[in-house]
C-alpha cells in the first residue's frame, strides 16, 4: 500500500470518528445542554475539509472509481450541511435536511473507511 492510499484510509477513519463525535454533540445539545450547540458548530470546522484532502489523496494514491467519487461526494455533503444552516436556516423544509445529510455523512464515512483501497 503506497503512502497516498494509506493516508486516504487513515483520514477516512478519522473522518468517520469526527462524524460520530459531531452526532454525539448534537445529541447532547438536543437532549441535555443547549450550550453544546456551540461545540457542535465549532468542531465541524476542524474536520470539514477532510473529504477534500481524501479526494486529492485519491489521485496521489492511484485510487479510482467509486472510492475517489465517494470522497468528493462526502465533501459535497459537508458543503450542503453548511448551506442548510448558514443560508437556508429560515427555510424549514431545506433546514430539515440537515439531520438527513448527517445520516448520509455517517453512511458515506463508514463506507469509505471500510473500503479496500
The residue fraction in helices comes out at over 70%
The biggest sheet, with number of strands, parallel, antiparallel or mixed sense and barrel status, is:
none
Strand content: under 5%
Average pLDDT over all residues: 93
Number of helices: 6
Structural class: mainly alpha
Q: Element order, helices and strands?
A: HHHHHH
Low-confidence stretches: none
Q: What is the multimeric organization of the chains shown? A: single chain
- Overall, the morphology is elongated
Radius of gyration: 15 Å
The total strand number stands at: 0
- Gap between N and C termini: 8 Å
Explain what this protein looks like in three dimensions.
With about 120 residues, the chain is mainly alpha-helical. The chain is about 80% helix and about 0% strand. The mean pLDDT is about 95.
Key features of this structure:
82% helix; 6 helices; mainly alpha
A few lines on this structure:
The protein has 117 residues and is mostly helical. It has 6 helices and no strands.
Topology:
Elements: H1 3-31, H2 36-47, H3 50-60, H4 65-86, H5 92-95, H6 97-114
Helix pairs in contact: 1-2, 1-3, 1-6, 3-4, 4-6
